[in-house]
Amino acid sequence: MSYLNDCHYCQSIHGAIAAAHLDGDEELVRRVKADFQYADISEKMKALLIIASKVQRGGKHVTTEDMTHARSLGASDVEIHDAVLIAAAFCMYNRYVDGLATVQPRDEAMYRERQDGGARRLRKCEQNLSSGRAGETLRRELIAHIALPEDLPGISGAFAFRSETAKPMRELAHILLHEINSLTPGERELIATFVSSQNDCYFCQTSHGAAAASHLGGDEVVRRVKTDYESAPVSPKLKALLAIAGKVQRDGKLVTAEDVERAKREGASDVEIHDTVLIAAASACTTVTWTALIPGNRAKMACIRKWGSTWPNMVI
Questions:
Q1: Which helix (H) or strand (E) holds 158?
Q2: How many other C-beta atoms are found inside a 10 Å radius of the C-beta of residue 173?
Q3: Average pLDDT, the chain
Q4: Cα Rg of the chain, angstroms
Q5: Contact at 8 Å (CB) between 230 and 180?
Q6: HSE of 185 in the Cβ direction (CA atoms, 13 Å)?
Q7: Is 166 contained in some domain?
Q8: Is residue 111's pLDDT more than 90?
C-alpha cells in the first residue's frame, strides 16, 4: 500500500520489516511491489493483495467476485477484513506522513537497522493471528462482503466485527472530534464531512454532516461547505484548513508550504493544522474500509440523520 501511495518512509520501513520476517529476502519484497502477480507468494496472498490494491484506489472498487476469489483460495473473513483495514489504514498513515511533510530519510541502511527490532515485536503477535476467529466462514448470504452485523450501518458494522481494531480507531476519532480543542466541535465535524463527501461516502458525509448541523444549528452551512467551501459562511481560517484537508484527501504530498502558510496567516496553530491533516487522513481510512466491506452504501436509510444528530456527545 505504501508503495502504491508513493510514501518513501512507510514502504521502506515496512519493506525492511517484511524482509526480516522473510529471512532477509529483500528481492521478494521488491517483486511484490513491482508486480505481485509474478512474485513467489501464495495464491491466497495474491488474492488479498488484489483486494488491498483496489481499496487503495477506493473501497467501492472491491467486488463480490474479488471476495469469492479470495475465499476460494482459503482466505477467511477475518483475513479479508484485516487486508481491507491494513490497506485503508495505510491510506491514512501515508497521507499523514506526507501531508505534514515529515522527514523521510533516503538512506536505506537506516531502515534495515530498524528492521530486526520491529520484526521481533511483530512475531509475538503471529500465534494470536492464527487462532480465534480465523476459521470463521459465512453461514448465510449477506449484502456485506463479509459477515457484518446487519443491524449496524456503515463503519459501525465493521467496528463490531473486529473489536480489537475498532478500539484504537474509535479512540482516535474521539480525540480528534470530541475532546477539548481550539477548533470547535462543529468545525471539526465539518472537516470530516467535507472529506467524506470528497470520498463519495454517503454514510460518513451524512452522519458527520448531521453531527455538524447539530453543533451549528442547521444544515445549510454543511451543504454549502460540501458544495463550495470557499464561498460558504465559515471563517477564513477554516477555509484554509479545508483546503489542506481537500489536498490530503487526494494525496498528502499535494499539501504545499503555501497552503500551510495561508492557514497560519489566518490564525491556525500547528496543532490545528496537525489535527486537520489527521482528520482528513483518518476519514480516508474509515471511508475506504467500510465501502470495501459493504458494497452499494447499504446505509442509505432515514435513521442516519437522527443518529448523527446525537453524535455531539458520543464516541463513534
A1: helix 155-161
A2: 18
A3: 79
A4: 20
A5: no
A6: 21
A7: yes
A8: no
Contact 207, 311 (CB under 8 A): yes
Decide if 211 is inside a domain: yes
Instruction: Provide the whole-model pTM.
Output: 0.72
Residues 125, 163, single domain; the answer is no
For the stretch 17-25, contacts whose Cβ atoms lie closer than 8 Å and that sit 24 or more positions apart, written own/partner, are: 17/114, 17/115, 17/118, 17/119, 17/122, 19/115, 20/115, 20/116, 20/118, 20/119, 21/119, 21/122, 21/123
The gap between the terminal CA atoms of the chain, to the nearest Å, is: 26
Amino acid present at 87: A
> In this predicted structure, what is the pLDDT of residue 273?
97
Do 283 and 168 belong together in one domain? yes
Are residues 222 and 276 located together in one domain of the fold? yes
The half-sphere exposure of 238 on its side-chain side, counting CA atoms within 13 A, is 23
Which pLDDT score, from 0 to 100, does residue 169 have? 81
What CATH code is carried by the domain that includes residue 22?
1.20.1290.10
How many residues are there in the chain?
316
